[in-house]
Each structure stands twice: as structure tokens, then as C-alpha cells.
Amino acid sequence: MSLFFTLIRRDIRLAWRNRLDVTIGLVFFVVVAALFPLAIKPSPELLEQIGVAVIMVSGLLANLLTLNRLFEEDWQDGSLLQLMLLPMPNGMMVLAKMVAYCLTIGLPLSLISLVLVVQYQLPSELIGPILGAVALMMGILSALGALSSALTLGLRQAGLLMSLLHLPLCAPVLIFASRAVYSQADHGFAEWWLLGALFIASWFFIPIAAAAALRLAVE
What is the pTM of this model? Predict the structure, then answer.
């Protein structure tokens, strides 16, 4: 396990060194969500109706913008092959990178979403559900992104292919996360159970699948 946590610290340090890439994703998230009200009627009722959906979609796009950090840089400098030769299962290596990605991208995005709650004048009782839904959504999107990034690694126009592969997979997650915010306000928890099940399943199975895709990419 010490090697597992060492890999997490390594990726966090790399993210700090390349913090401009991380900052771009966070700024993109805020800018997209902040500019959206300018294109519609500035009605408080309308902003309240679309606020949750805009936050979720903006988080999805920001996630897509930063997915190349997962494996692309390590693949280009040759360190990905060295990581796959470490005395640990390749799936654990992928899992460590997913954890580091969530800590450097998913967690800040979840916290910034609280600022957007104020901008869209959403009820204060939705703050907790929005924070929880965004956090779960970013965790699932990170897992799906790891799979999409691994499947397209080294291919020509990998960014376009990754987008075409990643976005359809994210649609159910986006729907469940948006509905979960309002379902809790109505004392319903079905969407939360679905999000939790997706989170557990994705973090259990996807590291294995992504590791297999990475082995094909480096051969």
C-alpha cells in the first residue's frame, strides 16, 4: 500500500508543478457557468430552475477538458511504461491516478460549485445535495474518463475520439446527479442509490479495464 500512496503523492506533486493545466479546468468551469445567464432572461425564477443543470453540465465539460492529464503526459515521456512495470497490479496503478485526479480536479470543482449556488440564487437547502451530487458525479466521471483516456491513448486525434467516447457514457450520470439534488428535497433517495451504485461499480471495474487498455497501448 505504501507504493499506492506514493503514486498518489507523485501525481499530486505533478499536478502542482503543472497547476496552470489544473487552473484552466477550474476557470473554464466557473466561466461557462457564469456566462450562461447572460444568454437568457435574467429572471430569478428561471435561474433557479436551470442552476443545477448548468452546474452539472459545466462540471462535465471541465472534466473533459482535463482528462488528458491522466495518462497522456506519462505516455509521452515514457514514464507510463515504467509505472506499469512496478511490483503492483496495473489496476492499482490506474486507481492511484484516479484518486490523485479526483483530489486535484474533482474536489476543487465540487467546492467551487458552492459559489455558483449563490450566483444562481438556489435555495440554501440545496447546498448540501449539490455538493454531494457534484462530488459523486466527478468521481464517476473520473473513472469513465480513465477508461476513455486509456482506450484512445496514442491514437491519432485522440482528443476528438475521447470526447465522442466519453460524452455518451456520461449522459446517465449527468441525469442522475441533477435529479438527485431535487429528489432529496422531495425526500426521495432513489437517484442517490443509483449514483452510489455507479460510483462503486465504476471504481471497482474500470481500473481493471483501463489497465488492460494501457497494456495494449504501450505494446
Answer: 0.88
